TrEMBL record:
Details of cofactor binding: Binds 1 Fe(2+) ion.
Descriptive protein name: Peptide deformylase
EC number(s) from the headed UniProt entry: 3.5.1.88
Matches recorded under SUPFAM superfamilies: Peptide deformylase
Length: 181
């Protein structure tokens, strides 16, 4: 098992947009294995490469007993939104209601460079959106309304895992359909 340490909120790698994967090689397959092992051990439903300190556009997921991964994802989202509790392995113990699209069609590649289309709703759609946000340097608390974001930042500052550095908050570059801005 190759369980790696998960980077926590405040680490600059979590705010840095990841680079597209160009080489579908043994190193990428090792990264996917490390992501999967770490996510399952945590346990979590998704984990993106930046959360292990790797600035590449790849994430793993485990939803409804389906384990998978996606490299260089691009998303098509439904217009219908739903609010649901969301947390993050990089913000241990924190959960906040977050608006997300109900459905997603994600196109990308597997670790061998073969095209993949992943379609899902509800939890799978939320997971895919959350992990793709990580690849863009966005953390789910960026999508909260101002009052929720303020409460999240207070909870982060009070968390025993939080370091001494001031966190950076930024607005999501993705369409939020007029919500959470």
């Amino acid at each position: 098992m190759a369980v790696k340490p998960i980077r926590l909120f405040g680490d600059p790698v979590l705010r840095t947009p990841a680079e597209p994967v160009k080489d579908f090689d043994k190193e990428l397959r090792t990264l996917v294995k490390d992501l999967s092992d770490t996510m399952l051990e945590a346990p979590g439903v998704g984990l993106a490469a930046p959360q292990l300190g790797v600035g590449l556009r790849v994430f793993t997921y485990y939803v409804d007993e389906q384990l998978g991964h996606l490299v260089n994802p691009s998303l098509q989202l439904t217009e219908e939104q739903e609010e649901g509790d969301e947390g993050c392995l990089s913000l241990p113990g924190l959960v906040f209601p977050t608006n997300r699209a109900v459905g997603v069609v994600a196109k990308g590649f597997n670790m061998y460079g073969e095209p993949v289309v992943l379609e899902g709703t509800h939890l799978l759609a939320r997971c895919v959106q959350h992990e793709t946000d990580h690849l863009d340097g966005v953390i789910f608390i960026d999508r909260l309304d101002p009052d929720q974001r303020k409460a999240a930042m207070k909870a982060i500052r009070e968390a025993e895992w939080f370091g001494d550095e001031a966190p950076v908050i930024k607005d999501s570059p993705h369409p939020t359909f007029g919500k959470a801005l």
